[in-house]
Every structure is written in C-alpha cells, then in structure tokens.
C-alpha cells in the first residue's frame, strides 16, 4: 500500500512547516488554508478516518484534542478556534489518514451550527 501524504510528511520524505510534534502526533500548517490559521493535527498511527477508529484508539484521540488545546494556547488563539474532522469522501475528506483541522481567525458561523 502506498503511503499517504501525511505518512510521507511524518517520515520526512516531504517538507512541511511543523508547528508541534511528539511521539504520537504531528501538527503542521495546511498548504491550502481556509482561515488565517489553519493547522492539521495528524496522528502518527494510521487510522484512515474517524469511523475506523477502534476502542483502543481512545487515548490517542483524546491526546489529539489536548494537543489542539496546547497548540491553540501557544499560538494565542485559545479563545476562538474551530475543530473539524471530515469523515469520508462525501464529507470532504481527501487524505485518508485521520486528521483534525484547527482553524482560527475567521468566523465560520455562517455554515457551522451554534
């Protein structure tokens, strides 16, 4: 199976602007940002999409959320940011390696529920 673009970034086979990294995940800038701040929080473990996550992934999934909080605080956007996970092709997922979009600096209230 061919590596995903995110696996290539994790393995340093492709360049990216790394904002944060630990042994479980990497946070990079999105190359096609939809907001002034648009980061991707990517687990190093390959999970193709959220609906494929298993019960034993719960600690990793929680860790990703805490990393989102930590990075938002580091970037002084911790009072106003959005978290988005696209699950599946029909939901807009284009890279089939679970990732969390952290977006800030733009109001998305016109299409996100309150």
Task: Write up what this structure looks like.
With 114 residues, the protein is α+β, with helices and mostly antiparallel strands. It has one domain: HIT family, subunit A (2-Layer Sandwich). Helices cover 20% and strands 21% of the residues. It is built from 2 helices and 5 strands, in the order αβββαββ. The protein has a 5-stranded antiparallel β-sheet with strand order 1-2-3-5-4, covered by helices on one side.
- The CATH topology: HIT family, subunit A
Provide the gyration radius in Å.
Answer: 14 Å
Spans of at least 5 consecutive residues with low confidence = none
Structural class: alpha+beta
First-last Cα distance: 40 Å
* Portion of residues within helices: 10-25%
The main pleated sheet reads as: 5 strands, antiparallel
**Net shape:** globular
What is the architecture at the second tier of CATH?
A: 2-Layer Sandwich
Q: Helix count?
A: 2
Order of helices and strands: HEEEHEE
CATH superfamily: HIT-like
- Beta-strand share of residues: 15-25%
How many domains would you count in the coordinates? 1
Read across the widest sheet, the strand sequence of neighbours is: 1-2-3-5-4
- Beta strand count: 5
**Mean pLDDT across all residues, rounded?**
94
In the CATH scheme, the class would be Alpha Beta
